[in-house]
Amino acid sequence: MRAFLRALAGAICLQLSLTALAAPPVVFTTDEAFDAASVSAYTGAHDAIYAHIDANLPAHLSELQRWVRQPSVSAQNRGIQEMAALLASDLEALGFRDVALVPTAGHPGVFGFYDAGAARTLVVYMMYDVQPEETGWQVGAFDGALVDTDLGRVLMARGATNQKGPERAFLNAVASTIAVTGKLPVNLLVVAEGEEELGSPHFPEIINAYRDRLKAADGVMFPFNSQSPTGEVGFNLGVKGAVLFELEAHGAPRGGPQRAEIHSSLKAIVDAPAWRLVQALATLTTPDGNDVRVPGFYDDIRPPTFDEQRLVNAMAKDSAAREAGMRQSLAVDRFIDDLTGRDLIARQLFGTTLNINGLWSGYTGVGMKTILPHVATARLDVRLVPNQTPGGQLERIRAHLDANGFDDIELRKLSGYPPAQTPLDAPLVSTAISVFNKWGHVPNVAPRLAGSAPYYVFTDWLKLPNLAVGLGHGSGAHAPNEYMVIEPKEGSSIAGLADVEKFYVDMLYAMAEASGD
Amino acid sequence: MRAFLRALAGAICLQLSLTALAAPPVVFTTDEAFDAASVSAYTGAHDAIYAHIDANLPAHLSELQRWVRQPSVSAQNRGIQEMAALLASDLEALGFRDVALVPTAGHPGVFGFYDAGAARTLVVYMMYDVQPEETGWQVGAFDGALVDTDLGRVLMARGATNQKGPERAFLNAVASTIAVTGKLPVNLLVVAEGEEELGSPHFPEIINAYRDRLKAADGVMFPFNSQSPTGEVGFNLGVKGAVLFELEAHGAPRGGPQRAEIHSSLKAIVDAPAWRLVQALATLTTPDGNDVRVPGFYDDIRPPTFDEQRLVNAMAKDSAAREAGMRQSLAVDRFIDDLTGRDLIARQLFGTTLNINGLWSGYTGVGMKTILPHVATARLDVRLVPNQTPGGQLERIRAHLDANGFDDIELRKLSGYPPAQTPLDAPLVSTAISVFNKWGHVPNVAPRLAGSAPYYVFTDWLKLPNLAVGLGHGSGAHAPNEYMVIEPKEGSSIAGLADVEKFYVDMLYAMAEASGD
């Protein structure tokens, strides 16, 4: 009878906690669509610099090869010090001053200042680390090989596109500009980290060390291959935040086994942490796992701005093909609630998430081991949209667990950072669109990426617009045979290395010449 | 709004499915306690045979050593054929006929018939396989070493107590009886398996091959070291059944990823199998994980018989020390519902269970991998008491999942068998108690073990009483330094090898002389 009353009380709890908890719809107040083509194309022409790039292209390519041939695997601390020193030395050779390795609790950052005596200053964000190489490479991952493919001649190496290729191409553009004109049209502040592939745990330390100098800049750029295999250009104005945490049930708080697993027959008389974890997790979502039942979980979400709506409205045009491609590449038959078109894009970019990344308890090997495990763990992540905060969401989850009697469940924060957002009307955004338009690639501009990066240090700490942009195409960032196209096939819309560099030259001048502030 | 209605419907579902579902209390109708001391002690004395055992004790010990020196690790298929042949050859040497290796889909069984021309026939169940040896042995696991310990001189070897020691001691008793009297007082049917440590998957095949011959017997005995380190004797009249199964959620049925994990940010628009598994599992129990919500789950349980109640009442006397020992060895602070005494014993021995043995999904290694896993799996076991069946319980779980909308969850049966129960009033039970009483060890008789074994082949198929009994003490069955006491310390209540064998001699004669049927 006690057990039944307990069960009934549990049911009532669930019932109460369900009140009107469901992902709120994203409300649109306009059907107007942003038209990137309406932004005037940049008109500057820097022919002498372009000619210098063309004349020195083999040497410029060698610079990319030199970078990718230096392994810098952050997860394995392999070549990290060497690559940091290489980057610092390259900056000094280009005339940067105050060049320094920036100590952190992890791998060092690299800082450098190019003083052009210019009115405007651009922060250039770089990452000098790469993913570990995996099996399945057709060339040595650190050989810097040139390979002929269906897309043309590519540099195939770890880091070719993520991110050494575009970064060194940017520095090549800087080198040619200085060689031809004597100096750059804008000042540069380079801040590089060696832990991007680890989730940038210490990047805020690097930014903090130069916070005041960086704050005085006009924007942040991450050299990036923004072209798809068919040449279309796209970029994002923001990223979601993320908070990663673990929920864990132990035997101790309720009487389950505290030291080690015990024989499964003892379930008759001993509490099981695995069931407690399952029950605690189950209170967090609706039965389909798609709406979060934690009170207040959706409260802080700010509705999309007018500009963000215009961007989504533009993305939603002709989205059927994009959705079909997504379904195929993800191997899914449908999206949540059978969403399509604008609703799907809105949910993906403006929706928060609560996801189970990993779940484990007891014996998970081949065969059967009849045990009652003493611990059960779930690793989760929440993706955050403006104005959600990592701490706020974790507090709500903790409070919800406590309110439902799950105060025995341990909540361990692993990492977390808020979202980052650059407004469409930031001058740097118009500048980027105008340069893409000059090169004949009207960009698809998304209000944000569904993924996460700690760019809040730029947008929130430094109050700067922040863009990852560039011509060029590469792929395989975290896979074998990573590449960046160097010489595209005849007729391809992909930019070759020379045009990638010329784009960056234009970006620097367009920024210097822009009228906005 | 659709999501909210879905959530509300889910809550109503849960509410409905909760109706009066809780583990039913075990109702006692008597406080009478079984008194094993009231069973008349066996009065037979077989001095000539005892003298033969004493005179040949060094040779008998060598037989135990010969057995443990032959590795027979079923999990590694190491020495299995050799040990089966050794056992068969030993049976032939003792005068057994129809000795045969019994082919199965796994390791072979061994059969042998000793025809004493007697009225009564005993089936002797044996296992000839052992667990793999682990690290931490102070002697070679297969050396058959004699070691002096706090308990006296012991045989320390893999299989010393589980189960080669008591088995070969039984055959030594047989050998001495035949040597002195020319034949045994009962006929013997030996059925041995080489897969006990694998869960006896093919043992039913062995029994089935000799079903008619075995059925005509009077009981089944498993030679067993029934003494605790302090010399107390205990044995069980039954075992629970068990059904092992997996529940698995895949992306396919609901739209989640079908082929592989996808990026965790996609949770915004893609269904997650891990949440579905968690939600499905959560419907199976109350929030504390201790009562099962599956309709009908408790329906088939037959209440304890009058005799079973008397056994529990006897066990409950002076149970505080036993409970304290259990709490310490299991490292638990309390038992479910703070049960103690008779209630605790009753729940442990008469309660069914639903336990999570293993749970896994996604990335479970060091660090964080932000993914949405495409599959999530739970491995569970249900312990069955009379009159529950493996198929019946799985059908109820399947029906419950379907009724709650979880028809997308796959249920895979791994193995299963029903419980086995020998009644207290079976003649073999009185015989065993009477022989223990003769040796001054009034046994603690439990109605059953909370654990499981496929002894239904004896109790249900053959309709025979089935006991694991013997004098002697050993420990470390699945651990380093497994041992069986050979020469106990002066003053110890543990039987030495000679008395272990004399007990078996008495068992054979007591069975032959028993008046009951």
Describe this structure in words.
- The structure is a homodimer of 517-residue chains.
- With 517 residues, chain A is an alpha+beta fold.
- Chain A has 2 domains: 37-239 and 420-513, Aminopeptidase (3-Layer(aba) Sandwich); 241-301 and 351-417, Alpha-Beta Plaits (2-Layer Sandwich).
- In chain A, 33% of the residues lie in helices and 20% in strands.
- Chain A contains 15 helices and 20 strands.
- In chain A, the strands form 6 sheets. A 6-stranded mixed beta sheet of chain A has the order 1-2-6-3-7-18, sandwiched between helices. In chain A, strands 4-5-20-19 form a 4-stranded antiparallel beta sheet, with no helix packed on it.
- In chain A, a hairpin with a 2-residue loop joins strand 4 (145-149) and strand 5 (152-156).
- In chain A, helix 2 packs antiparallel against helix 15 and helix 3 runs antiparallel to helix 5.
- Chain A is globular and about 85 Å long.
- The interface between A and B is large, with 103 and 103 residues.
Short description:
The structure is a homodimer of 517-residue chains. The first copy, chain A, has 517 residues and is an alpha+beta fold. Chain A has 15 helices and 20 strands.
Fold blueprint:
The structure is a homodimer of 517-residue chains.
Chain A: H1 2-17, H2 47-55, H3 57-69, H4 80-93, E1 97-102, E2 109-114, E3 121-127, E4 145-149, E5 152-156, H5 164-181, E6 187-193, H6 203-209, H7 211-215, E7 219-223, E8 234-236, E9 238-239, E10 241-250, E11 262-263, H8 273-282, H9 306-315, H10 320-330, H11 341-350, E12 355-362, E13 371-372, E14 375-384, H12 390-403, E15 410-417, E16 420-421, H13 427-438, E17 444-446, H14 456-461, E18 466-469, E19 474-475, E20 483-488, H15 497-513
Parallel strand pairs in A: 3-6, 3-7, 7-18, 8-17
Antiparallel strand pairs in A: 1-2, 2-6, 4-5, 5-20, 9-16, 10-14, 10-15, 11-13, 12-14, 19-20
